[in-house]
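Hi everyone,

Forwarding the result from last night's run.
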Amino acid sequence: MQADYLLEALSHLGTWSVGGLWLPLLAWTLVAALALVLDAHLPLRRPVVRQRMLVALLVALPVGVTLRTAAPVYAPQAAITLLNSLWPGESMSAVEPAVALDAPVATAPATAPSPATRPLLPLALGGLTALALAGMVGGLLFLALRHVVLHQWLRALPIISDAAMRAQAQKIAARMGVARLHVRIVDADVSPFTCGLVRPFVVLPARLSGDADALRLAVTHEAAHLYNSDGIWHVIGRMAQAFVPWHSLARRLLHQAVLRSEQAADTCVLAHFPRERRAYAHLLLRYSTLPAPVVALSASVHHLNPRVSAMKHVLDLRARGLAPALLLLVSFSCVLSLQAQDSTNTTPPAEVFVVVEQPPRLIGGLEAIQAQMRYPQAAKDAGIQGRVIVQFVVDENGGVQDARIVRGIGGGADEEALRVVQSARFEPGKQRGEAVKVQMTLPITFKLAADEQDQN
């Protein structure tokens, strides 16, 4: 029984995931691949704008999927339509509840679909979606664990007091427009880096106190990160990438966003000290292998070559990239959340269930239908008898819709069966406490009396 419930849950999850996760993910993947190609081949002029556009594109995926999930009235129907188109003539559940009207009036109980009769694709998609959701939770937990490890690592760094070095660093940062620079000087072999969101600070190794030129270049670089709010953008990108830690393009987008933020800081340094390109390149190389978390002077060894190459060009220092980034985020998130919908102004038909927690109940019982039935004279004269099977949908109000003959016997019996079924009233079926449409079948048996059979 528990296995049946698990398979049912996976099937429903797989049905939802087509429109709720995988189609938005496919659309986002295509756009992300195009964005990475353009970022790699277009001339680099304003790295700050590139960084913010890449982060905005990265954030658009979780925001779009969240908006998509927040409108469940669209996702299930779109998913069911797509899945049913993959298996023509096959419904999402293989067994229908039957209400039997026969000589001895009886109602046949609904049975749960067996694992062998379930469509395999919804189950496979449900399992894949469950793994994707588990990966998302794991990615967020890993990000939280990294934060804890970073906090412990920072606390373990030996902080020393060097008022002269701190004052010199604050003076350099003030020229950059950073009025209040919080500096921590540590007696450890680390690369200079910026850390913190609410009250960001710069960590500088004590070895820089004896090299005024290197200190000036390093502080200018970190002050540029603070001025551009790179720490905030970096954390936002990390959280968005943790939403799909298994997606290689998400990792690549984050990698490129970090690279662009580093190139923007490099541009700022060279704008203030244009004659010290060689000294600055040697400084990057010197600290490239030292530990430096979050936004750092040398965030990755893999960034060195493109950063040094970018130093040969004059880049734009302007950081007005917030407006286009927000525009990209809002527009693309809306596209993801609304894709696969026919129109935002039309309401798709409600989902029709074949198995529900509380099946519809015929008002008056089967006796009420039996009392209304009239044996067609043409069928009597021709001696026609047998079973007519009617399939129909009980709507949310208990009315009968879409009644049709699945198997008939002719002689007017089919029309009489349809008339009786269409006039019936039900207490609507319920799923999770809400009235829903339920598909049902009603076998109606027409049987002549013994004396009428003898006459024919």
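The two ends are 52 Å apart (CA to CA).

Cheers,
N.
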